[in-house]
Amino acid sequence: MSQLSKLCLxxxxxxxxxxxxxxxxxxxxxxPHQWLEAVTDEKALDWVRAQNARAEAELAATPEFKxxxxxxxxxxxxxxxxxxxxxxxxxYYNFWRDRNHERGIWxxxxxxxxxxxxxxxxxxxxxxxxxxxxxxxxxxxxxxxxRPAYTRCLIALSRGGADADVTREFDVSKKSWVxxxxxxxxxxxxxxxxxxxxxYVYTDFGDGSLTSSGYPRIVKQLERGQSMDQATxxxxxxxxxxxxxxxxxxxxxxxxxxxSRTLAFYNDELYLRGADGQLTKIxxxxxxxxxxxxxxxxxxxxxxxxxxxxxxxxxxxxxxKFDDFMAGKREFEALFKxxxxxxxxxxxxxxxHLVINVLEDVKSRLTVLTPGADGWTRSALTGVPELGTVAxxxxxxxxxxAVWMTVTxxxxxxxxxxxxVGSNRAPETLxxxxxxxxxxxxxxxxxxxxxxxxxxxxxxxxxxxxMQLDGSNPTLLYGYGGFEISLTPGYSGGVGKGWLxxxxxxxxxxxxxxxxxxxxxxxxxxxxxxxKAYEDFAAVAQDMIQRKITSPAHLGIxxxxxxxxxxxxxxxxxxxxxxxxVIQVPxxxxxxxxxxxxGASWMAEYGNPDKPEEWEFIRTxxxxxxxxxxxxxxxxxxxxxxxxxxxxxxxxRKMMAKMSExxxxxxxxxxxxxxxxGAANNRQAAHMDALYLTFLWQQLAK
Length: 702
Fold this sequence. Notes:
By secondary structure, this protein is of the alpha+beta class. The protein is built from 16 helices and 39 strands. The strands form 9 sheets. It has an 8-stranded mixed β-sheet, with helices on both faces. A hairpin with a 2-residue loop joins strand 10 and strand 11 (198-202). It is globular, with a radius of gyration of 25 Å.
């Protein structure tokens, strides 16, 4: 079984919560910029177009910008990127975008062919051709194909990159849509196979069918030929739940059905659905990430747990036999226990083994665990590089012990390997990404800053080998710090070409709120402790300044989404540290964030501003409210997307309006398409990236 709770948490939502405290009502009425929250209102879009024109005139009119945009587009469109594949039956599938396929093609090949430098691909679905035929702007959201034949697929398509999508049934053998096949109208949710004639459907069924976060509240079983209102109810959650879903684990010999009830981030229940439709709860902590693979139940603990007379620390990985657990036994094997410097980055099942990926001070370490009659044995995965980030995924966990292994770091192009777990054979190198920039001039270091409360905060520094410690180096500091997401080293052709190759210094801060040291690192910056993430980021900036790597006039920062909230707080709370600030697809108005699109689902992270006692601490990290027209702020660029239906573009619009009205040095660009990623195709991505890189060079290289 895949980790359904993580999939649910990664999905986007639409919020529609009613106003709560009187103070929130008064603030909403008194906000003169609230009209900009009307996403597609023509008056608001006219305002957007005017801001875009000013930003384009300032940043995009020079030959240097055009060259940078062209260079970035060539990288993003390159035919030499690694085409990542996944196995279905005998075929290896890939979704691919380049200069000739702007929206992309879904294609497949054989492993024998994939091993070649230039594989021959068979196109299964061409999205550009589909868009031309249907007059649409579809963006690929993935395909779910029914085993064992893998010929019938449920394909999700989004208009313009939004999180809401439609699902349509497709016949791979005929390369055509199934006439009268399964279909789900545009909404947030999904269809999932049960068998060829039945699917689980969780979506917007009409009034009252969504949670207060905008996720599906109801899951049904839909039989081929039925209309949605004829589908059989499987489970109905509460309005204040976050997300309800169901799925079939179709592992041969271990077929099971599950219902997932996500109450909030890091808080979910998983139920086994019997043949009679009855649900039996898997009685593990709601905070634990729960997954089932063949015989095994696996739990990743986010909180300490006493069970079976033993104590297990938060961050531990536990396994037990699934059937034994459901029968009431509580005997676990702890396959990983965290330390002060280690955390679990991932666990991947193959047919006979489990590969765990551990971060040790944000560097990957892999171990192979093998169950046997006498317990679990441990061994190293042969041929794993000592340095860099290593990502592992199973090729086919039902049939083989083969894994894909991707190795990367900031200066080394990514390499894709095929390894056989449990063998002594060295991994086979299948694909290596070409160098998209000259990395010979730079080197990578790891440093540790000391935060305000004494916490040791790691950060990576990618710097010129001949860098002078005189404080004059243009430096870009990136961060995120939320939702237990770890920032590990990775190769970026865009950052390399647009920043490093030009002589810039690049730094990545592993601040609290992320997952670099497991759940404790994330939980240390939740809600009333959010300020610790910002203190960590400021400490990294101050550490680089103290080392004379850079100085405030030459130090720029960038972050998106939760990272946009981060850079918004750096702007408003630490303006003296920075010479330029880039804020992308951000949260900024933290009094109304839970009423705008996906916001209601994030209250476990930030708190509920409708509760006066929680608004008291939320207001201390709400950039929209911390902004002071009397203060001086560094030059700022705000970027967002109209079609982002996860983080509402109103955050960015209103902040721009407030800063501009106060006469601050700010510019704004909103992509009319794009979704939460900001861009719906490579051309849009190249344009957006060229804007922020040009802005930073203009401000920091003076």
